[in-house]
């Protein structure tokens, strides 16, 4: 059993502000594992009336990352994105509620490969599909103990 659970890590990351808070991301536990959710707001549109691809990528990066973090926490470690590829399958209109499903495809000593799909909650139609590679590492400080820091000044 991990010392810190995934919901605690997610809540701490969201409390730090930044993209988690800006996108209005939430985390739910489902029978399929962790699910990151978001509603496409007018602030997240790229083209008129549809989600910006970057917002969808951020949703999926967070979803895949939470799946990777769940594995990492069981090892007393943390996880971070190494690379990610997204296929956009159909537009998500402003007002659309999205949810994700993820799955670990490969679990190595220091790398995880995770796939995931973002779905339209109303139609269950897939909106985007992603594949990501994540590094599993021992953090200097656990995520649940992180605090906002002033930007580092150039040397």
Automatic annotation (TrEMBL):
InterPro entries: HotDog_dom_sf, PAAI_dom, Thioestr_dom
Any one GO cellular component localisation term in the record: cytosol
Record domain Thioesterase: where: 49-123
GO terms for MF: 1,4-dihydroxy-2-naphthoyl-CoA thioesterase activity
Superkingdom, natural source: Bacteria
Entry keywords, A to Z: Hydrolase
Keyword Hydrolase among UniProt keywords: yes
A Pfam family it matches: 4HBT
Name recorded for this polypeptide: Thioesterase domain-containing protein
Taxonomic source organism: Abyssibacter profundi
Organism lineage: Bacteria, Pseudomonadati, Pseudomonadota, Gammaproteobacteria, Chromatiales
């Amino acid at each position: 059993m991990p010392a810190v659970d995934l919901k605690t890590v997610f809540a701490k990351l969201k409390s730090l502000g930044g993209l988690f808070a800006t996108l209005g991301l939430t985390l739910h536990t489902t029978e399929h594992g962790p699910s990151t959710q978001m509603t496409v707001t007018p602030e997240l549109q790229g083209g008129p009336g549809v989600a910006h691809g970057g917002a969808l990528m951020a949703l999926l990066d967070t979803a895949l990352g939470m799946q990777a973090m769940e594995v990492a926490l069981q090892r007393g470690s943390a996880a971070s994105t190494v690379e990610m590829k997204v296929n956009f399958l159909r537009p998500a209109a402003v007002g659309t509620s999205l949810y994700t499903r993820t799955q670990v495809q490969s679990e190595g000593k220091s790398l995880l490969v995770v796939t995931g799909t973002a779905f339209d909650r109303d139609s269950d139609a897939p909106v985007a599909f992603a594949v990501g590679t994540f590094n599993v590492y021992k953090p200097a400080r656990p995520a649940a103990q992180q605090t906002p820091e002033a930007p580092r000044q150039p040397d």
